[in-house]
Every structure is written in C-alpha cells, then in structure tokens.
Automatic annotation (TrEMBL):
One of its GO terms (molecular function) is oxidoreductase activity. It comes from Streptomyces sp. R11. GO terms for biological process: deoxyribonucleotide biosynthetic process. SUPFAM superfamilies: Ferritin-like. Its cofactor is Fe cation. InterPro entries: Ferritin-like_SF, RNR-like, RNR_small_fam. The lineage of its organism: Bacteria, Bacillati, Actinomycetota, Actinomycetes, Kitasatosporales. This is Ribonucleotide-diphosphate reductase subunit beta.
Length: 315
C-alpha cells in the first residue's frame, strides 16, 4: 500500500488482504457507514475496489482444511461456508426486484454494482464448497447440500426473504414494499448476518498462517459489504424521514429475532474467546438502527423478542 490510513482496507489489493491488521478489517464497515455515503460515492468506491474470485489460490487451503485444522475448527468452517453458500446465492437470486424497484436513478446505478458483487461472492462460495470442503461441484446439488447443513432459523429467514421479495416483485413501483425489502436484505441479512459472519471468520483466522485464500476472500467480502450496508442505511434513513418508519420497523420486528438466533441448532462449538455471534449481531443491529433514525427502545423490543423465540425441541 502507498500510505498508512485509518481505512487500510480501502486501498488493499487481494494479495495484501490476509496481512492487514485484523482490527482494521473488523471496524472498516463501521467507519464507512458512519460517513453516510450517498449512492454515487458508493458507486465510485466500487469502481476502485475490484477483485477476482478466480484469482484466489485455494489448493493450499484444501490441504490446511484436510490435514492441519482441528476437528472443531473444521466443523465451524464447514458450517460457516455452508451458510454463505446459501446466503450469497440467495442474495444474487433476490436482489433483482430491489434493483428494478429502485426509486431514483442513482439507486439503480449503485444496485447494478451490488448484483456484480453478489455474483462474485457466489462464485467464490461455490469454489470454497467444491475446492475446500469437497462438496458436489454441480451448483444445484451443492446448494441442496448446503441447505441441509444450515440451521432452522437460517431457513426461516430465507423463507421470509422470499415472501418479502415476492411482494415487491408483484408491485415493482411500490416504495413502501421496496423499503421493506431493503430493510430485510441490506440491514438484517447483510448488516446483521453477513457482515458479522465475515468478520467472525477473519477474526478466527487472525494470527494463523492457515487458510490464506479463505482469509483473503472473506476480507474482500467485508470491504464489499461496507458498501452494501451503507447503501441500505442511506435508503432506510431517507425512508424514515419520509414517514415510512413503521413499515421498516414491521419487517425488522419479523426478521431481526430470527437473525439473532441464526446459530441455534448448529453442531459446531466455538472455543474462541470474546463476544458471541449473537452479541455481535445485537451490537450491529443497535448501531444500524440508530444510523437510520430508529430509537433504541425499538431495538430493545426486537432483541427481547429474540430471547423469547427459542427453537422448540421438536424442531
């Protein structure tokens, strides 16, 4: 890199990403969203921050996964990648109606870049599934395998996403429905789940020479996610100001409790010291709700709902 910056990740090449200070990677999205960038600025960032999913070398990662990782770490990585296989493909599959329903031209232009990102992320996850985990190379069969590996709350959230996006698809010019879809897709799925999950993987690999390809890929995805979440917060902040706060609160009330329970039913046990995924998700939810102008009392309400909505024994 040419110079030191508080936003080291902004200018890093793919090869440099595994060596970045982990603290800078973990706080990058928070620094970007705090700037409240508009869609044009996000588009310009996207043009400067391209990377190739095909350029990441994964053969050493396969060796690390099969021969060097402890069993518990293998299981945790397997479950995490399965979650992202489903999540990134779902993002690619469902983002189209959000692009089509964009209320302004600058929104439309930016969202075109996000579809490109989701395509790249999906390609990387399919590579990780095949080349690292040894899943079926056929995308449809791999998606079925991954679906069977994710938790019950993850499946529930995916079904809710489908319902909300289908409503928008049937009413493409409905701004209220568009904001509901953005709230679920950008704030919850990306801001509470994807970003927290990507950070967790990067943090877990900090200080180890293993899985450099996985580390580079997820670091690059963290940088992309900072743009995605920033766009969602911009759109929702505007929606709240225009009087659509109740519609945004409604979909968050439905989805946030599910997202905060996303790990329930997973088999892997984390031995990592520090905050849990749930705690990180709560912090991210609170921060993003504040940034769009929704009160802390509402955040307390949906967090309380997640505590009461436990997975039943029969599930």
């Amino acid at each position: 890199m040419a110079r030191w910056s508080t936003l080291l990740l902004d200018d890093a090449s793919l090869a440099e990403m595994p060596r970045l200070p982990v603290a800078d990677v973990l706080r990058h999205a928070d620094l970007v969203t705090a700037q409240e960038p508009h869609p044009q600025a996000l588009y310009e960032r996207w043009e400067k921050q391209q990377w190739s999913a095909q350029a990441i070398e994964l053969e050493p990662d396969r060796e690390d996964y099969e021969r060097r990782l402890p069993k518990a770490a293998r299981k945790a990585l397997e479950e995490s990648i399965a979650t992202f296989i489903i999540g990134e493909y779902t993002g690619l599959d469902l983002l189209g109606p959000i692009l089509t329903g964009a209320p302004e031209e600058r929104d439309h232009l930016y969202l075109g870049t996000q579809i490109a990102d989701e395509t790249r992320h999906t390609q990387l996850m399919l590579r990780l599934g095949e080349e690292v985990l040894g899943l079926d190379p056929d995308p449809r069969r791999m998606l079925t395998q991954a679906w069977n590996m994710v938790t019950t709350p993850h499946r529930d959230l995916s079904r809710l996403e489908t319902e909300v996006i289908r409503e928008l698809q049937e009413h493409p010019s409905d701004y209220r429905r568009w904001l509901r879809a953005v709230a679920l897709f950008h704030l919850i799925t990306e801001g509470v789940l994807a970003l927290v999950g990507q950070r967790a993987i990067v943090r877990s690999l900090h200080g180890t020479p293993l899985l450099s390809g996985v580390k580079a890929g997820f670091t690059a995805m963290c940088r992309d996610e900072s743009r995605h979440v920033s766009f969602g917060l911009h759109a929702l902040r505007q929606g709240v100001r225009e009087g659509y706060g109740d519609d945004i609160r409604e979909v968050i009330e439905q989805s946030a409790p599910i997202a905060l329970r996303i790990e329930e039913g997973g088999e892997a046990e984390s031995t990592e010291q520090g905050p849990t995924m749930r705690e990180l998700g709560i912090d991210s939810l609170r921060r993003q709700l504040r940034l769009i102008g929704i009160e802390d009392a509402f955040a307390d309400h949906v967090i309380g709902l997640s505590l009461r909505q436990q997975v039943s024994p029969e599930q």
